[in-house]
Design goal:
The structure holds two protein chains of two kinds.
Chain A (H helix, E strand, L loop, with lengths): L3 H5 L19 H31 L4 H28 L3 H34 L13 H6 L3 H33 L3 H12 L6 H11 L13 H8 L13 H27 L3 H9 L4 H12 L1 H16 L3 H6 L9 H11 L3 H31 L2
Chain B lengths: L2 H15 L4 H6 L2 H25 L3 H6 L17 H8 L3 H32 L5 H11 L5 H13 L6 H25 L3 H9 L4 H12 L1 H17 L2 H7 L8 H11 L4 H21 L1 H10 L5
Helix pairs in contact in B: 3-15, 5-15, 6-9, 6-12, 7-9, 9-12, 9-13, 12-16, 14-15
Classes of the chains: A mainly alpha, B mainly alpha.
Amino acid sequence: MPDIDEAALGVEKTRPIKPIRKGPGPNLLTQLMRIGVSLVVPVLAFGILYWAGTVLLDENANRLVVVLMALIIGVLGVFALFYGMNWLVMRLPERYRHFVLPFVFVGPALVLLSVFLVYPTVVTVKLSFQNNLGEGFVGWDNYVDIFTDPGTLEALRNSFLWVIIVPAFAVGVGLLFAVLADKLGSKGEAFSKSFIFMPMAISFVGASIVWRFIYNFRPEGFGEQIGLFNGIWTGLGFEPVAWLLQEPWNNLYLMVILVWLQVGFAMVILSAGIKSVPSDIIEAARIDGAKEVQVFWRVIIPSISSTLVVVLTTIVITVWKVFDIVYVMTSGEFGTSVVAERMVTEFFTFGNEGRGAALAVVLLVAITPLMVLNVRRFQAQEAQR
Amino acid sequence: MTTSTAETTRTESASAAKKPGFWKRVFHLWPVKLVILIIIIIWIIPTVGVLISSFRPPDAVNANGWWTVFSNLGSNEWTLSNYSDVLTSEGFGNSFLNSLSVTIPATVMPITIAAFAAYGFAWMDFPGRQWLFVVVVALLVIPLQMALIPLLRLYTTINLNGTFPAVWLAHTGFGLPLAIYLLRNYIGSLPSSMMESASIDGATPFETFTKLVVPLSVPVLASFAIFQFLWVWNDLLIALVFLGGEPDVRVVTLALNNLNGSRGQAWHLLTAGAFITMALPLVVFLSLQRYFVRGLTAGSVKG
C-alpha cells in the first residue's frame, strides 16, 4: 500500500488547461450564466427526487421498484443533467463558453456544499445565540448554560476523557499489532490483519449490540449469566456486576467499543507508514548495534511521526462526534453522556434549540484546530508540487 | 493489500520455508506469534459470540452462555428461526430493502457530482479555483451535528422530511467534501500531456472527462464507492433525524436500535438482527478488501 500523504492521495502535478481567452473578460452576463448553470443540476435533480420521493412512495410502491428507480435517477439522471448542461453551454458564443463551462463541472457540487454544509453551519451558529425556541437573541446565555448545567458539564467531562483515552489505546494497540505483524511473512500478515480491521465494516449500532451482549447482567438468582464478562467474573467466584451502571467506570466500558472499532483503522495506516520506512536506515541502525526496541523508538517512530499525527487527529475527530454508541448502550444515562449525543438529546428530546445549537458549536470549536491542521497539511502538499 | 508483491514473496518464502523443519517454522518468532494470536482472539470473540447465539434456540440462549456450546459439543441444538422471526415479524426484511433504497443512490449521486467537480478543480481554470478547494478541505471535518437543526427546519418547510430523497440529498451533501478531495487528487495526478493531446485532437472537456478521465479513475471511484456505501449503510444519526423510525421507511440500523429499545433482553432476536445489519458490509469488506483498505487509507481525513 502506498504512503497515504503522497501516492494514495495521488498528489502530483496539476496544470489546468488555460482557456483561450478571446473577446472581453467576464461581465455581468457571464457571472449570471455561471450561477445559472451551477444551479440547474441541483435544482432539476431535486425536483425529480422530490417527485419520486413524495408521489411514488405515497402510493406504497414496491420496494424493489423504488430501489431500481433510485438507481436510475442516481446514475443516469444526474449524469443526463450534466450532459444536458454541457450541451447547452457548448452552444453559447465562444466568448461566454470558456468562462461558463467550468461551472457546469464544479457548480453543482458548490451549490450542494453551500446548502448542506455552509448554510447550516451559519444558521447553527446564529441559533446558538437565540433562545430555546429559536427566537430573539440571548447573547452568550446558552454557552453559560452549557458550562454551568450539571448535565452538559458531565457530557463535556466525558467527551474529554473519550478524546484522551480512545485515541491513545486505538493507536497503541494498532501500532503494536502493525509492528508485530510486519515480522510475519506477507501471507500471515495479511491474514492476521484482516481479523483486526474486520470491525471497521460493522456499524456503531451493530457493535453496540455486540458489546451490550458481552456486558449483559443478571442479578443473582435470575438464571445463569449469559454475558461473557459476567460469565468469566462469576466463574472466578465474584458476584455478578451490572457493568453499564458502574459510574464512572461505565464510560470506560463504552470506550472499549470504539477502541475495538478503531484499532483496525490505526493499524492499517500505521502499517503502511512502517512499510515506507527505508529498510537501509533500519539495517544501518542494526549494524550499529541497536536492539529491536531501540530501532522501534529511535528509527521507526520518528520516521512515521507524520502518519501518527494523521491517525491521531482522524480518530480524535471521530471520537468527538461519537453518538451512536452512547445512544444505543445507555441513552446517555448513568453518567455516560457525551457532547455529540447530548446535542441530539437537547434538541430532539428536550426541544432546546438554542442549547443544542450551542453544543454543536462547541463541537465545531473543538474540532477547528484539527481542521486548520488539515488545511495546513494540504497546503504543504500543494507547495511541494 | 499489495497483491503483486505478496505473490512474489509468497513463492520465495514457500521455497525458503522448506529448509527448516515444520515445528521449527511454527515456533520461529513464537513470542510475536503468541501476542498476535491473543490480540486476534480478543478481537473476534465478540463477533463469534453473536454469531453463535443467533443460531441457538431462544431457550438455550436464555439458559446459559454461548460459550457453553463448546463444552457440550454434539448435544447442541441449532435453528434458523431467530433469523426468520427477525426478518418477518420484526420487519428486518423490509428494513434491509429500505437500507438498499437509501444506500445505492446516496453512494452514486455524490460520486457523479464529485467526479465532475474534481475534474473541474484539477483541469479547468476559473476564478477562485484555489481557495474554493481549500474551503472543500476545511469542510471535510465539519461535524454532522452542525447541520441537523437547520436542515431539519428546511426539510420541514418544503415537506421533505421522512422521505428517501431527504436522506439521499443529506448523504450526498455530507459525502461530497471527501469525494471531491480524493477524486481531485487522483484525477489531478493524471499526466497533463494526455489532457493536452485530447484537447488538440478536438475533444471537448466533457468528452475528455467521460472518455478518458472516468475510465482511468475507476480504482479511486471504487474506493470511494465502498467507503461511502459502508458509511451510509452503517449510519444511524442521519436516518434517525431525517427518515425516522416508521416501519415503512426505517433502515436496518434503526430497526436494530428499535429492537434494542423494545426487546432489550431478547438476545436470540438481537443477535440475529445484529448479524443481518452486519452481513452486507462484511461481504463487501471480505470481497473488496483491497479497495476498502485503499479507501480507508485515503479517507483518513473524513469528518
